[in-house]
Amino acid sequence: MRTHNGSDWRKLPLSLSELCIDTTLRCGQSFRWRKINDEWHCVLRGRIISLKQDSSHLHYRVTWPKLATGPLTPPVSVSSTCPSPLRDKESGAEKDDTYSLLHSYFALSHSLSSLYKQWAASDTNFARRAPAFTGIRILNQDAWEALVAFICSSNNNISRISQMVQKLCTHYGPYIGTIEGEPFHDFPGPEALSGRQVEGHLRQLGFGYRAKYIAETACILSRFKPAGWLLQLRNPDCPAFDGPGENRGTQDAKAAAGSATYRAAHDALLQLPGVGPKVADCVCLMGLGWGEAVPIDTHVWRIAQRDYNFGKGNKSKTLTKAMYDAVGDHFRSLWGPQAGWAQSVLFTANLKSFAEQASAVKPETVVKVTRTERAALVYGSASADAEAATVKVEESQETVIAKTNSQTRKRTLITAKESVEGDGKIIETEHVEVYTRRRSKRIKAAVS
Predict the structure, then answer these.
(1) How many Cα neighbours within 13 Å face the side chain of 104?
(2) Mean per-residue pLDDT for 235-248?
(3) How far apart are alpha carbons 357 and 364 in whole angstroms?
(4) Cα(134)–Cα(423) distance, rounded to whole angstroms?
(5) Could you tell me which residues come within 8 angstroms of residue 37 by beta carbon, excluding any fewer than 6 positions away?
(6) Helix, strand, coil in percent for the chain, rounding step 5
(7) H helix count then E strand count, the chain
(8) Is residue 183, in this structure, part of any structural domain at all?
(9) Among 113, 341, 361, 400, which one is most buried in terms of CB atoms within 10 A?
C-alpha cells in the first residue's frame, strides 16, 4: 500500500499551558503514539496524524492511505475495517476533518488553565506539584481501544503496555502507511480479535493471561452486545467523534447515550472479562468522557496515603473496594466534576520517568520576614562625656511577606538606624543584616 500526504503542516493556536504533547502523550493514557525525530505519530480514524509543537501552536500533518492490491496486513492477521477519507462528489478531493478530530481527541472544549486554577485553589498539594506538569489533558479516545489497552495494563508498566498494543495493531489492524521506515497500523476492531485462534496467538506474542480476557471481551462485543453498546455508556456531554457522513452505532444506541451515568457505565464495564474497578475507571475517563472517574492504581493509592492521609493504620497491602470508593469520592469532592483530569496530573508527577521534570521547578512558598528597626537618639553635646549625654532608644519590628523557594527555611532582616544629634549636626548610620538559613547551613550577609 502506498501513502500520500493529504496536507502540509498546518497549525492550531494552542499554548503549552493548554496542551503539552510531550507529557500528555506519554503519561499512560494512549499507548500508540510514537516519537520519531521530534515528531509524534499515530493512526487515528484511518489516517496517520503527525504532531509537533512550539510555544504557541500545535502543528499537525496528515498521511492518508491509498487503495492497495496486496494484503493489508501480514498473512497471520485478521484485518478489521477502518474509515476511509470521504471524497467530494464533484471534485473527487478528500474532505479532511482532521481539525475537528484533533479538537475532539484532545478535548479542547475545556479550558485547562481555568481547571488548574480551580484545583490549585482547593488543594495545596496540587498547587505544589502542578507547576512542573502543566498542559496535561485527558484524551477523548475510542472506547474500544481504551478498553483493550487497559485490559493489557493489569500488573503492567507503560512500556510493556505500549509494546502489547503495537503488536495488536501490527498483527490484527489494517496497515495505513509508513513514516521514516516504520509501518503504522490502525487499531483492530472487536471482530478482528474474536477469532478462535486469537487467544493462542496472543499468548505466543507474550500477552499471558490477558490474552484470554481480550479474546473473550472481543467476542462478547462483536457477537452478543448490540451495535453501539459502548456508545450507550458515553457521557452525553462528551460525545464520540463523528466525522462527516459517519453513523457510529444505531439510533437507539445514540438515544440511550443521553441517559447514561458514570456509575451505570462503570458497573456495566465490570461485567466484562478482565475488567476491575481500576480498568473500568480508566475506560470511563479516557474512553467514555466521564471526567469524574478517578482510576486508583498503585501510584494513586500511594499518593492518597502519602499526601492525603488515607490508610493510616491499615496493615493490609491490598486496596479494598470500600477504600477504593472512599479515595475516589474524596478526590471528587476535592476537585469537582473533572477530578479524573486532576488525578492524571498527580499520577504523572509520581512516575519515575518524570522524576527529572518533577524536580525541575521548585514550588514557591510564602514566608514571614521580620524587620527590626532600632533608633538611638542622643541629646547633648557630641563632645560631652557619655555619662552627661541623654540617650533614648526606640525599637520597632515589622513583619512582611516574601516568597522564596522550598529550600529556604528562615530569612530574617534586621535594620538598625542610629541618629546622633549634637553641636547642630545630625549624624545617621544605618545597618542592615540579613540572615538566611538553608537546611543546616547558616549564611550571614551584612550590608552597611
Answers:
(1) 18
(2) 71
(3) 16
(4) 65
(5) 180
(6) 35, 25, 40
(7) 16, 15
(8) yes
(9) 341
Rounded to an integer, the average pLDDT of 272-284 is 97
Provide the residue type at 24 as one letter. T
- What is the C-alpha to C-alpha distance for residues 163 and 411, in angstroms, rounded to an integer? 51
Nearest of 348, 355, 356 to residue 136 by alpha carbon: 348
- Smallest Cα–Cα separation from 146: which of 319, 323, 3, 28? 28
Angstrom distance (rounded) from CA 130 to CA 360 = 12
Whether 175 and 183 have beta carbons less than 8 Å apart is answered as yes
433 part of a folded domain: yes
pLDDT on residue 22: 97
Q: Which structural domain range is residue 375 located in?
A: 364-447
Higher per-residue confidence, 5 vs 328: 328
CB 15 within 8 A of CB 55: yes
DSSP state of 150: H
DSSP tag of 225? S
Q: Which of 287, 313, 334 is the last residue of a domain?
A: 287
Q: Is residue 408 part of a domain?
A: yes
Regarding whether 373 and 269 lie in a shared domain, the answer is no
Closest by Cα among 80, 36, 75 to 178: 36
Of 287, 321, 349, the last residue of a domain is 287
Instruction: Tell me if 302 sits within 8 A of 350, measured CB to CB.
Output: yes
Annotated catalytic sites, by residue? 278
Q: If you search the block for the grid coordinates 502540509, which residue do you land on?
A: 8
